[in-house]
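## Example record

The block below lists the input lines for one assembly entry, exactly as stored, with component labels intact.
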Amino acid sequence: MERLNKTRAFLTEFIIVILFFSVAAVIAINLYVEADQRNDESVLKSLLSMQAQSVAENIRAQKDNYSSIGMYTEYLDEDMCTVDEKKAQYMQKIIVSVVGDKVMTTGREYKYDIVISDIDSEEELFSLTFRQYVSGEVQQ
Amino acid sequence: MKDKSKFQIGTGVTSILMIFVVLCLTTFAILSYASADADLDMTERHITFIETYYNAYSKLNDEVAKIDNIIYKMLENDTTQELTQDVVISKIHTEKSENVDIIFEKSEKSIDALLVTDINEKQQLKMEVTININNNKNVCIVNKCYVYTEGEAEIEEETLPDMWGG
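Predicted structure tokens for the full assembly:
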């Protein structure tokens, strides 16, 4: 009889232990999943911002040929390397326009819109806009 | 006879083990979440800085465009008299934007201007612009840009110790 009571006590305790463990496990798994999602989001945002900033700095240094007004499209893979459209995961658009209604004869102020979007959903993931003035020379 | 080699788990052992396992699980889960959250927060702060930096850069470029246009119009309108540095500086001061400060420094052949605008509460973007107005009426603006952070520590020159030449 005493042994039976001990067994009952042990089993009852074991059930309560499993109950508390399962509640804690559910909470912990939710936290782990949320942490993983945030990590993925952080990595993606870092990559996108670095890519956009790299393009912007190339434009500022006038290393790339974006002096003509229009739209330039490039396709990027998951590592932000330029690839063909078929293998691409992201689409990068650089829209070059002139600021203001009149074109000043001394120089031109260009507006650059750098937009990176998902190639499948076409959802805009990151955008960066800035203006740059290129001065000219006035010949008498 | 009672079998003394039979192993029996005590009543409180599972509870103690459970407490230990739950503590570990919870601690590691919270640490993972906090670390990922901190990374995301840092990334978003960096993105905010990038956006505000390029906004400030655009404002300074707008101002440079305005200065160039002012000088060009002055050259077009005042063909009878030579444009003096004081006249140019006065005109630019009158028509400059409110959120941009301009500090002028006259030199023999050109006007050096420092354009300053705020990136955020503690940082400013400064752009050095050189305005050349020579006798051939060529207007050329050369600029370079840098970030100034409030409260920068003074950099002291340190003497390097003797290094092994190899």
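The mean pLDDT of chain B is 80. Chain B has two helices and four strands.
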